[in-house]
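User: Here's a chain of 96 residues. Predict its fold as tokens.
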Amino acid sequence: MISAAWSEEKGTWGVTVDNIETEETYSEDFDVVITAIGRFNAWKIPDYPGIKEFEGHLRHSSAWDPNFDPTGKTVAVIGNGASGIQVVPNIQPIVK
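Assistant: Prediction complete.
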């Protein structure tokens, strides 16, 4: 995306995009723009007291281990963003 500008006249967002595959630049108007800026690409596991002594499987939802099978395990989820909306509903039916 090259730019996004609000137009008072039209009541829309004018978005200009550069397609890096075709090298084409185009503009389009939108009623809504949702920024998905990748805020969690610099995730880290918080330094909670006792976390270094924890011997279980420890993961951040931004770095999910696809080889981990939570079936039948006791699981604690700390967080309510992606953890609460995406992870919990998907593992809740299979965990202890």
